[in-house]
Amino acid sequence: MSPENSSRRRAMQRGMTLVELLVALLLGSLIVLAAVAALTVSRQGFLAVDASAQLRDNARFATSIIRRLATQAAYLDFKHASTTAGAAFKVGESTTAAIEPSIKGFNDAAYDVQLINGTTNAVTTTGLNNSDMLVVRYQMGTVTKTDGSEGPDQTMIDCSGATSTATAATMSERMVSVFYVAQDQGEPTLMCAWLDGSTWKQQPLVPGVESLQLLYGVDGVTAGAAPSAATDSIPERYLRADQLVTSSLTDTNANWDRVRSIRVGMVMRGPPGSSSNGTVAAQYPLGPQGLMNSADDPGSTFAAKTDGRLRQTVSFTIHLRNAAITRQDAT
Question: What 3 state SS string does the chain have?
Answer without folding.
Answer: CCHHHHHHHHHHHCCCCHHHHHHHHHHHHHHHHHHHHHHHHHHHHHHHHHHHHHHHHHHHHHHHHHHHHHHCCCCCCHHHHCCCCCCCCEECCCCCCCCCCCEEEECCCCCCHHHHHCCCCCCCCCCHHHCCEEEEEECCCEEECCCCCEEECCCCECCCCCECCCCCCCCCCCEEEEEEEEEECCEEEEEEEEEECCEEEEEEEEECEEEEEEEEEECCCCCCCCCCCCCCCCCCEEECHHHHCCCCHHHHHHHHCCEEEEEEEEEEECCCCCCCCCCECCECCCCCCCCCCECCEHHHCECCECCCCCEEEEEEEEECCCCCCEECCCC
